[in-house]
Amino acid sequence: MSRNSLHVVPIHRGKWSVRKAGAARARVVFKTRYDAVAFARKLARKDGSELYVHAQDGTVKQKDTYGPDPYPPNG
What we know:
alpha+beta, single chain
């Protein structure tokens, strides 16, 4: 997991936060997961980073990578 990856994680009372990997505080908090993912996806595309979307139980539900492929196929 890269240091500049973003995580969409559930917090109390049904709200969702967007955090950078290793950050102690949320960058921003949203009322819905949909809004949090949309915001995080824009940031990940801009920065060329990874996006992890967590489920309510904390497990990783979805992972997307943006930017150049570090391991392009041969040929």
